[in-house]
Design goal:
This protein has 195 residues and is α+β, with helices and mostly antiparallel strands. It is 45% helix and 24% strand. It is built from eight helices and seven strands. The longest helix is centred in the C-terminal third of the chain and has 40 residues.
């Protein structure tokens, strides 16, 4: 299910549901943060209240917990206890306005991609009524981590090829001369408007 997401990003919804069942997380999110824009460039979630997602995007351009996770190595799995002092978090605006009203408890995350421009990964929450994440939960997500990271990498390559293909097509379309591209059987697979 995870590798299917490289070719079909809509499949992340089902993959997140499966990951959530595996690590007993009712709420999961996959997101990519664009540092230049100071915003979330891509987000798929499972289990979060849509009303609070709007609050999240309006008030918290970057999740402070996930930002701390971005500092960790790609492929690293971390929990709230590994990132921040619980007392410090409970006193934060993020906790008071977003986590607490949804009864969100412990946090787990995976840093899946990082560059100068962006970082992304998967994060999840348990409810306050649930126990904190244990070493078994971290171990299970660590088993999935290489596959999630590879899927992110494959998606990046496919996006880059798409951008390059679109740029090449735009360039060929702008030429005054006719351009025909054929396959090995001499079938025309592309021609620009001049052609």
């Amino acid at each position: 299910a995870i590798y299917d997401c490289a070719l079909n990003p809509d499949a992340w919804q089902q993959a997140l549901r499966g990951i959530g069942e595996l690590i007993d997380s009712p709420c999961l999110c996959l997101s990519i943060t664009d540092y230049e824009q100071q915003s979330v460039a891509y987000c798929v979630n499972h289990g979060y209240d849509p009303q609070y997602l709007k609050i999240y995007f309006d008030r918290f351009a970057i999740n402070p917990l996930f930002s701390l996770g971005h500092l960790r190595a790609v492929g690293d799995v971390y929990t709230l206890a590994m990132l921040a002092d619980n007392k410090e978090l409970v006193e934060s605006r993020f906790y008071k306005e977003w986590s607490k009203p949804q009864s969100l408890g412990d946090f787990i995350g995976l840093n899946a991609v990082r560059s100068k421009q962006r970082a992304g990964g998967v994060s999840g929450n348990r409810k306050l009524s649930q126990p904190r994440y244990a070493e078994d939960d971290v171990r299970l997500l660590r088993l999935l981590a290489p596959h999630i990271c590879r899927t992110f990498a494959i998606s990046d390559v496919l996006d880059l090829k798409s951008v390059r293909t679109n740029a090449l097509e735009a360039t060929l379309d702008a030429l005054v001369s006719g351009v025909y591209l054929t396959d090995r059987t001499e079938r025309v697979v592309y021609m620009n408007p001049a052609a």
